[in-house]
Amino acid sequence: MTEPVPYRVTTREAETADTVTIELAGPVLPEFRPGQFAMLTAYGIGEVPISLSGGGSGGRLVHTLRNVGAVTAALYAAGPGEVVGVRGPFGVGWDLASARGHDVVIVAGGIGLAPLRPVVAALLARPADFGRVSVLIGARTPADLLFPADLRRWGRHAQVEVIVDRPADGWAGDVGLVTTLIPRAEVDPAAAVAFVCGPEVMMRFVAEALRRRGIAEPAIGVSLERDMKCGAGWCGHCQLGPLLLCRDGPVVRYDTVEPLLRVREM
Amino acid sequence: MPESAGLLDATELPRLFDALRERGYTVVGPTVRDGAIMLAELGSAAELPYGWGVVTGAGRYRLHRRSDTAAFANSAGPQSIKDILHPPRARLWSADRTADGVTTTGPDRPPRYAVIGARPCDLAAMAVLDRVLSAGAYPEPIYTARRDGVFVVAVDCTEPAATCFCTSMGGGPAATGGFDLAMTELADADGHRFVVRAGSPAGAEVLSALCVRAAGPRAESEARAAVAAAADAITRSMPDESLPDLLTGARESPHWADVADRCLTCGNCTMVCPTCFCTTTEDVADLTGEHAERWRRWDSCFDLDFSYVHGGSVRRSGESRYRQWMSHKLGNWQAQFGSSGCVGCGRCIAWCPAGIDITEEAAALSAWRRSERAQPCPP
Ligand SMILES: Cc1cc2nc3c(=O)[nH]c(=O)nc-3n(C[C@H](O)[C@H](O)[C@H](O)COP(=O)(O)OP(=O)(O)OC[C@H]3O[C@@H](n4cnc5c(N)ncnc54)[C@H](O)[C@@H]3O)c2cc1C
Ligand code: SF4
Ligand code: SF4
Ligand code: FES
């Protein structure tokens, strides 16, 4: 768990102007479950936490990452054949068991859709185990929408709604915040669970909107982001009060973290 | 393990050093350096701080000459057993590009250290670090390897400092476990000697190589009295209440702003603290990019970059960073690792350039909470 395992990039697909999905192949590691993350190393540059966005077993990992700084820039640039270091799986993923027999609302903002993609895939793969699935997605602009092919496929079996902050020419869809989609979710709120990932403020507003819709805080899971230098509980960077998010998260029940997120600069 | 205490003359200390070296240990212990008692690899027992004492206070640490030759009649210095087992800098791995990928080499095998003169608060801190770095799902490799090989010669505290409050955190002043050998130093008219006990089979084996006499009831009771007197001499303490509850209840206290006015956010407290374990990593590569290494070094929650995520740091203000430190030590640690993160060694008090005292800040938070509770209605 200290030394990264060398994986090779097998495919690289541009998602948006600053986001790519890379597929990695290498020695088999313990299975990565939806919501768990890998520490990805760009050799000589650094290491960052990146969620699983597909694959996860048999030595095949799919990650979707946004180029925002030194390490993600190097990973963003890695093309087929290049070696990327992998450590993991780390953290607690989405509690899919809690969704069995229930309707499910998925709310994603921006790159937050990446860790939720394997959840939607898992839900739709076993439709008999779950109720209705409603996927609500917010993006900055139409050009920032991730996984358009997946969205079309999901739309055949689930409710998929998309909203953008800023429309572009030819956009006929909704404009506004993702919270405005929540009243439209075709689910029974009294018996629904929600999985939410996006910027922290967005998740707080979404949780509030879900609560108003009748989905209680304990039924809401959120994936939180903090600085992570190790993924393994060693470095202390990922603390949020009593939690070590690399170990106790990144996915946490909203009712356990709401009081922590309410405190400024916690 | 022999239960009855032995008596080791101070003149036997060189033999103890030899015995440890013969068994493959690198001997580390206290010695005077740069105006403080530091931990260093010791070539001989002569380098121990014979006849040196220490006076500490808030923001204060001074050496002074003692009237006797005692080597360990000084309280915890700026370093601790953490510096040995969880070193400030370490290489985690190195990697070389090869024709078919990358070959990676893990951390170097560490020497086996024998730590002479570990304090009871060091033992308590080691137990805390064991929980943090070795007992989780993924044992941290550097600490765990050093810890596995270590031989600890603890010394009971007979001269606590004004900054010590181990009695209120359950850490001292007597060594109660986690050592291979433990000694109580006696330096009086009867001579300079140590009442010694083994805490492990390895300790008993080392003792068997030394000239150890039976301590006898008189030396044993003198040793007990010296440690009991030390306990009585400790006057600082933490508020007598649940500290995790106190810190959770004080998240929004205005007192943090008061501390922030004094705190320089220098991070000294986290560096000297024997349980602060936080680290960051640095990746380096040679010019060709064929060779890369990852180094791990101590980090501090007082550093602005510590909580940096894309877009900015989570804890920007000084008050939020002080609150993180104190809340972690006294409160959140319990939830994270099942123990307190403070062992009451007082190092953070002595080495704070602003003289901030964690016991006084805890008392102030406690007073604030009492006054809050006394309000009949929220303001
Ligand atoms: C659990 C988890 C899952 C994630 N999953 C994904 C994902 O699936 N896709 C995705 O795109 N992102 C994901 N992220 C976010 C991703 O990890 C960050 O975007 C990434 O760490 C940024 O690293 P960088 O080096 O590219 O950016 P930078 O912002 O350059 O670097 C971030 C790190 O470098 C240091 N640093 C750089 N600049 C500064 C500065 N000015 N001041 C202080 N420190 C600085 C800090 O130590 C900081 O931690 C996830 C994060 C977490 C915690
Ligand atoms: S917080 Fe201060 S008194 Fe407590 S263990 Fe750390 S340095 Fe010692
Ligand atoms: S107090 Fe700060 S430096 Fe020390 S362990 Fe906690 S977060 Fe890390
Ligand atoms: S990322 Fe290092 S402790 Fe959580």
Question: Would you give an account of this structure?
Answer:
The complex is a heterodimer of chains A (266) and B (379). With 266 residues, chain A is of the alpha/beta class. Chain A has two domains: 5-90, Translation factors (Elongation Factor Tu (Ef-tu), domain 3); 96-261, Nucleotide-binding domain of ferredoxin-NADP reductase (FNR) module (Rossmann fold), CATH 3.40.50. In chain A, 21% of the residues lie in helices and 32% in strands. In chain A, a hairpin with a 3-residue loop joins strand 3 and strand 4. In chain B, helix 8 (243-249) packs across helix 11 (318-337) and helix 9 packs across helix 11. The longest helix of chain B is centred in the C-terminal third of the chain and has 20 residues, at 318-337. Chain B has helices at 13-22, 81-85, 120-134, 141-149, 166-169, 201-207, 216-233, 243-249, 255-262, 268-272, 318-337, 347-350, 358-374; strands at residues 6-9, 25-33, 36-41, 52-57, 60-65, 89-98, 101-105, 112-118, 151-155, 181-188, 191-198, 213-214, 279-285, 291-298, 308-309, 312-313. In chain B, a hairpin with a 2-residue loop joins strand 10 and strand 11. The model of chain B has no long low-confidence stretch (mean pLDDT 94). Chain B folds into two domains: 6-96 and 106-233, no CATH class; 243-374, no CATH class. Chain B is globular. Chain A binds chain B through residues 1-4, 6, 8, 41, 43-47, 68-69, 83, 85, 225-227, 229-230, 232-237, 239, 241-244, 247, 263-266, and chain B through 92-93, 95, 97, 101-102, 104-107, 132-133, 136-138, 140-141, 251-252, 277-281, 283-285, 289, 292, 294, 299, 301, 306-310, 314-317, 320, 324, 327-328, 331-332, 335-336. Flavin-adenine dinucleotide sits between chains A (37, 46, 48-51, 64-66, 68-72, 111, 114-115, 225-228, 250) and B (305, 308, 310).
Provide the CATH topology of the largest domain in chain A.
Answer: Rossmann fold
Q: Globular, elongated, flat, extended or rod-shaped: what is the shape of chain A?
A: globular
Architecture (CATH level 2) name of the largest domain in chain A: 3-Layer(aba) Sandwich
User: What's the gyration radius of chain B in Å?
Assistant: 22 Å
Domain 4Fe-4S ferredoxin-type (chain B): 252-283, 333-361
Organism (chain B): Paractinoplanes durhamensis
Keywords (chain B): Iron, Iron-sulfur, Metal-binding
InterPro entries (chain B): 4Fe4S_Fe-S-bd, 4Fe4S_Fe_S_CS, Helical_ferredxn
